[in-house]
Amino acid sequence: MRRCAISARYSSDLQRQSSNEDQIRGAREYARQKAWLIVEDYVVADSEVSGEAMAGRDGLHRLLEAARTNPLPFDCVLLEDTSRLARNLPDQLRMIDRFAFHGVSVVFFSQGIDTSQQNARTLATLHGMVDEQFLVGLRDKVHRGQHGRVLQGMIPGGRCYGYRNVPIEDPNRTGKYGRPAILGVSPEINGEEAEVVRRMFKMYADGMGVGQSAKQLNREGVPAPVPAKNRLHRAWSRYTVWEMLRNERYRGVLVWNRTKKVRNPETGRKISKSRPESERVRVEVPELRIVPEELWQAVHDRIAHVKDALGIARVGGLSRTRRTYLFSGMLACGECNSSMVIVSGMGKRGYVKYGCHAHKHTGVCQNKWAIRQDRLEEQLLAAIEQRVLQPDMVDYLVKRCEEEIGRRIQELKRQRSDSNLSALRRQRAELQKKAERLIQAIETAGDLGSLTQRLRTVEAEIAGLDRAMAEVRPLNLKITTDELRQRVIRIVMELRELIAAGDPAAAKNALRKHVGRLVLTPAVQNGRRLFQVSGSVDLDPDHNKGRMLLVARDGIEPPTPAFSGLLTDSAKWFGISACLC
Question: At residue 559, does pLDDT exceed 70?
Answer without folding.
Answer: no
